[in-house]
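A student in our group prepared the protein record below, which I am reviewing. Thanks in advance; the entry in question is below.
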Amino acid sequence: MSIFKLIVTVIHDYTNFTTVLLAVFVFLLINKLFMRSSNLPPGPRPWPLVGNLFILSQDAAQIQFTEWTRQYGNVFTIYYGPKPVVVLNGYNTIQEALINKGDDFSDRPGLNKSLGVAFAPYGPIWKEQRKFTMMGLRDFGFGKRSLEGRILEEAEALRREIIKTDGKPFNIFPLLRKAITNVICSIVFGARHEYEDAAFGTFLEDVDIRFRTSTVINRVYRVLRRVPILGRSSQRLHQATERMRQFVKTKVDKHHRDFDSDDIRDFVDVYIKEMRKGQNENFTDPQLVHLVIDLIMAGTDTTSQSLYWILLYMIVYPGTQQQAQDEIYRTFGDSALPTTAKHKEVPFTEAVIAEVQRINSVAPLTIPRCTSNDTVMYGYDIPRGTMVHVNLWSVLRDPSLWEEPDQFKPERFLDNQGQFMKKDAFIPFSIGRRFCLGTQLAKMELFMFTTYLLQHFTFKLPEGAPVPSTVGKLGMSNGPRPYELCAIPK
């Protein structure tokens, strides 16, 4: 047991004033000695016992981190209790760490038992599983136009559900989440779910619990589970995760029973086929279950939240919505199906999508990383095993890279000829070895769902309703605060 855990136990069991004072004194002494003996990057002074965790209980840690760069530079240290955490900010710094020093900054903290790919530690097994996953997903359309049919099928199902609202105010997010999840389920399980499916609904509720409950505090500082409120939150998270695991395991078990090596239907079948070769002990049912959960998590919440943000900005900026709709109508008319083959013919729509991703990144801090080797950044020593936050917000809102970065301006992504213009600093999916596994799918979904929805509906603010806030709420992702809109069929 570490000294800090011992202190927390003492405080928990013997809550008298003398013990608390002694615990604080011991913590301050240890913290002072540690800080004197290290060459970590500078940072804000930590509080007794909690370090700098107080700021991470808020919804906008990424904004505070960005503000701290003015005082401490683009690489600084904060503390989760007595444990140092290095925060990387700025495009050049992040590129140096994740690209030039990628082998040093690609590990994960010990958050699970090394299964799956999202949270698994960097190493041979992770590389093997990720490579196999990418190859298997490509067989079912990842990054290819053959996937468009699945997306359009779901976009049409979504349209039919929206029609049922009859132009009345409603929160569209639950429908967006079902649609996006169905796309990845069709690839992974070979089938979509009806929106009324009770088991599917419960699974999505658990996905939501995992994203909403998994704040930075709850994920990375297990000691705080002793605090009653955080302890209940952690228990809720564990229960939701276990239900998700059981949901996926049930489907994997059915795939085993129905498996036919001559009829590979989906990604689960691809994985089972590899398992049955019996040539690699790393391909197991528990690994497959965790891998599928990772894929669903990667392909569900962030894309759903991005679409939710896009529609929010459409009702806040109706002129922008109209301009995008006019462009979509000129290209696809009112009935032709959108296709990525014509994405260059709707540059303003692409610019709108990109600007929403820039101004409100759904993953501003990414999943925490961990150094896999002792390394050095700008003269500071960062020991192996140090947790690392990558602050993409500091890049996407950097005034040296984006003119008036806090303003919504889709035209910043258009060149002088009105064509969409890619920018190096536009990195909403991160970079390096741990970039988002669902990047290609997310890009296709955002383009096709956005064009399809704007082709068929005009989205409006309900009469008399307040304008929705463009300040998000940070959990594992940065999503809009709940709002309602009216969908008027065109």
